[in-house]
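Convert to structure. Protein one:
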Amino acid sequence: MFTTQDEWDRGYADGRRYRQLSDNERLLLATHAPVSTDGRALDVGCGLGELAAHLAGLGYAVDAVDWSESALAEASTRHGEAARWLRLDVEGDDWAPLHADGYDLITLRFVAPFLNSRDRTLHALGHRLRPGGTLVVITPLASDTPAERRGIALDEDELAALQHRWSTAERHDTEGLAFLVLRGPRQNETTPQDGPSAAGTQDTPSSTRSVEPTATVSLRQHHFHLLGRYYGQVESGRKTVEVRVATPEKAVVEAGDAIVFHDRDSSRELDIAVKRVTPYASFEELLDAEDPSRIDPDASREELLVKLRSIYPPGKEALGPLAFEFDHRPGRPGHSLPMAPSEYVQTVPHHTVYGCLYVRDEHDLPVQLRSVYGSRLWQFPGGNLDTQGEDPLQTARREAFEETGLELGLGAVRLLLTHFLHAGPPLPLNKIDFIFDGGRFTADQLRQIRLDPAEHDMWAVHDLDRWRQLMAPRAFARLDAVERARLGEGPAYLITHI
């Protein structure tokens, strides 16, 4: 694993190369980082410039930075003026060459594991995003990387910690890579303005120490033990304020830290993020300001005061009571999954997914197409979800257009029925069908149907009695269930067997 600029320069000069941008990565970029008008992108650690050139092809104005002069020289030769090629070490150099008005998209492909100060650098980059901007991290998964090359990848704990530092984070795994879509860097940390050398502070104008709610994970942890009764109140979400006194270990707890509650009656524990810490002169003052039901929802104010003073005698109360407010946000990263996603998918039954549209004529009689395959079944317009990036409704609309020549199911569409079909000969996989209401069509509209002869050779409109005569019982059961669901007379979930 290279760690210095000279090593990277020699590596590129000696012909070292990284895997090419895959079709799945291109699709994920198009889906989650579509270019906007006058969109500007920054590719950090651009290497030979393949990703930067792809972003330029999508319509972004691209700045591409790398600290290897050899890589930048070859990128410029390969891709010309597709990007503004900049020699820059994002962790050590001044960021003055970057655009001061920020970027709509910042990408780091195969870069994050090599950063010495990953959290700080990504946080600083996040504050170079324009409003609504996106930071994309593409990195190998440690679980899919040989042990001798572990340094080029991130494990589940590292990925979780990275994601929790953003207000919204999406993860997509593809071909041994994690594709992270990050938006909104957490606001309760130092906000670097001019790159890694900048620093800042934020003063709190009162004695109460608080942070705005965010989906963050703290690195500072404090351990509180609770009797089972109170632990159960926290566990159920009923208790959201804990009261202690300002002993040296409790006085250092700050908003944004993690508290780990331990149940004294068992080995259970749970963690929360501290939202607010407020000091008081006495328990009387605390209970005048705080809602007692958030401290102990099963006791009155008077009972709570007696209980607190039985736990903390006057000498302890004189230290100063503290109210720790929290909610349901976690304070620690999640545990690693018991196995890698690529391993897990091999242990579960596989399914196919189908999306189709239930179309009717102006008298609400069902319209179906006759298949040229197999048992020559009568079918709704639609098909299997086999196109990357589509959802079942998008599949239904696309397949319906290919099969009939009509644009069906436009606008807001209602899901009528979810159909689970158990596997069995000749279908080796379970099948999940999503059947949407495709609406009503006039006779003139229906006459415009143009079948794809490779899939269907006939279309027809009949009432249910006639369809019952034309269809196999299992196939008709689905049609009947869809029609009853449309009328609000039947269940929205159907299970059948081959």
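Protein two, convert as well:
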Amino acid sequence: MSRMARITTPSDGTATERLECWRDAVSRNLAPLDVLPRECSDFHASLHAARFGQVLMSLITAEPHSIARTRRHIGSDAPDFVPGADVSAGHVEDGGA
């Protein structure tokens, strides 16, 4: 098992700046995607991940937001990415493809 450092949005700046920071962190550490704001005036999020062989497990704690992973994000050199979710609070909605 190898661990990644915990990534947390900064406590300063605007909610828009923190959302952009989150978009960048998730795209670099998990998979390229868009992060879309919801009605939240004070966005904060954190990601803690560990790798078990070929599997990357991530614990994400975040204010409500949406993500989009489109064909534009998926290139021929992109690693395999199979999302799964176990939500302990809130919910996950799959917009389908």
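Residues 8 and 85 are 20 Å apart (CA to CA). The two ends are 33 Å apart (CA to CA).
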